[in-house]
Amino acid sequence: MALIELRGVSKIYHLGGEEIRALDNVDLDINGGEFISIIGPSGSGKSTLMHILGCLDSPTKGSIKLDGTEIASASTRDLARIRNEKIGFVFQFFNLLPKLNVLQNVELPLVYAGCGSRERRERAMEALRLVEMDNRAKHRPMQLSGGQQQRAAIARALVNRPKIVFADEPTGNLDSHTGETILKLFHDLSRKGSTIALVTHDPEIAAVTPRKIEIRDGKIAKNVDAKLAGQLDGPKFAVGNQPG
Amino acid sequence: MHLINAILVGLKEIWANKFRSMLTMLGIILGVSSLVAMSALVKGMENGMKEALIAIGGLEKVRVEEQDIPVWQQHLADQAVGTTMNDVHALIRSAPLITMVVPEMRTRNITMTRGGKSISPWNFIGTWPNAVELNQHVVAHGRMFNALDDENARNVCVIGTAVRDALFGSPEQIGREVIPVGEFVNINNQRFKIIGMFEHYESDQDKKRRELQTAKPPEPKGTGPERSRGYGSMGSKGGSRSMGGFVFDLKNNSVYIPLNTMWLRFRAASGTSGTGTGGFGGRSSSGSSSGSGSTAEFVPDPRLSTLSVKIADIDKMDEALQQAKNVMLHTHKGIEDFSFRTQENWSEGITQAISNARMSGGIIAAISLLVGGIGIMNIMLASITERVREIGIRKAIGATFFDVFTQILVESVVIAILGGVAGLFTSNMLVKLLIILSPTENTPVITVESMFLAFAFSVAVGILAGLFPALKAAKLNPIQALRYE
Ligand SMILES: Nc1ncnc2c1ncn2[C@@H]1O[C@H](COP(=O)(O)OP(=O)(O)OP(=O)(O)O)[C@@H](O)[C@H]1O
Ligand SMILES: [Mg+2]
Known about the structure:
The structure holds two protein chains of two kinds. Chain A has helices at about 45-55, 75-85, 100-115, 115-130, 145-160, 175-190, 205, 225-230, and strands at about 5-15, 20-30, 35-40, 60-65, 70, 85-90, 165-170, 195-200, 210-215, 220-225.
């Protein structure tokens, strides 16, 4: 059984009598441990798909099973709990809380999970070590570079050991070099067993991931799995030069 | 998320916006401190009133006063006899719920003179010896007149200190205590012997002030106009008087003489005649010695000015009054030309004043709290608009409706609580300041209840003011919140 199963999922907006099908009858399976990129032109519905996959939004119709449970009709309260326990988000604009330091930001999902302060601290430091940000724990987001902020945000996404991490244009706000280190970080996480779905409109980034889903006008236009097709040998960049 | 965490987050948020939060709290501070200070003032007034109430004889004392005959009994007017000694004896005999009956006869236009000095006492009363007890008098020097003095209608009197001050000089003027017991004075040109003097009555406040003044070095003598503590003294004492202070002036400005003395020496002169309905020899079993009925001799007016009674049990006030009424209706042949005036009636006026003060204080406090609440709501609304993105992020990583709701509500309540605590401190300072500014006023008393009440109100205001912003924040759609720029 797949980690996520989408069947006939549509998201329809009505704007002044006009019907906008942000997602149109999408079927999709994502298995645990996969590293996926979702690609498509602007306005094609990538973010909408990610929001629905990430339980931030409910579809207009269709069914979604996450880990075997139906969530298309779940209450907002259940959705909040699922987001907290099973899903991690990484955003284009990092979205760290400016008034909290890095450690507090990373701890935040655990606060809502009801963890004790000691466990929170330990797990947050562990996540920060994973992204090599443990030496910046007491810094405020404003005192960090873009790449560092994004790594802190990734640590926050990982801290509750989610089933899947969604990243919406995680490199969109970074220069190409920094973007590459972030991509490499995702790749490492994937190799360590995380399930990652990466939204992008950059084909070069999409080329890095084993599986590539292309969206056009709210429909899945292409669904290419490199492993199954045997087309892709591995990531374009070298994995060996990673520190640690 | 735990409540403790929510409170910590709230505190942090408030700390991050110190200045803004302070301004927001100001309304609550004003509201709480005005509520507490006002109720402290009112409490001070109440204490002053209670003191005065005890001084005039407590609630057990009821006065029977003459009253116009009701319209439906006008045709019986010529049979109305007024309140007389008959009533006194009837009440003593037949009203067991009444423990004490004191007849009083007053006369106006009394002038007491001694040497070149004179005074017209406010109370010149002929009565029985037990008036001392009923009116809570204390004979500090000499003695009260007794039944024998009364029976023989002796020319003796017991005076208050204000009368002493006017005729013999006050201790402040003389520089030592003046006890004129044994001296003679003229009352409307009749020689009376002073056989006793009451103690000097004053409220705790006035006592305090007097002690304050004596602590200071005395003013050099001979400068300024001579002060008297007679009639005009109320104004000339200067400064503010404590609540019910006049009650003490009234008591000090009293002269008591035996009832029979009053009747024979002063009523006889005052003219109006009536049918003698029972003698004034009163308690002696024999008929009246002072002549009754239709002798050619001039018969003094036998009517009493008032008649005071003491109720056995304050809880049975209504029954006792009913009993007294029945007895007196009998002696008055069914004509209701009397009424009962309880001290409750007297205290009602002051109670009214106090409740007015409480009311206006309450309104001021309520308005301040309302304004404070609006301030909090305003700030919370501004704050959540500022933090739409933050709320979106929190929701994306798992904050529920309830989490966000409590966070905002707690922030609002924490502001209100801090404001409330600051308000309690402010009110304490305020009351201390009031006491320093006017130490002789009825001391404001801060009550624990008023502090609890004010604090509870501030918390309630915080909750009410926070509800709407918290609801608004908690209902934010995380996606829209995340897209918000
Ligand atoms: N709240 C909304 N109301 C109406 N239409 C919406 C709403 N949200 C999204 N849409 C529409 O849904 C479509 C898909 O939007 P979406 O944000 O998923 O695009 P995207 O693929 O993420 O684009 P980009 O690459 O620019 O981020 C767009 O046409 C958009 O206008
Ligand atoms: Mg998008």
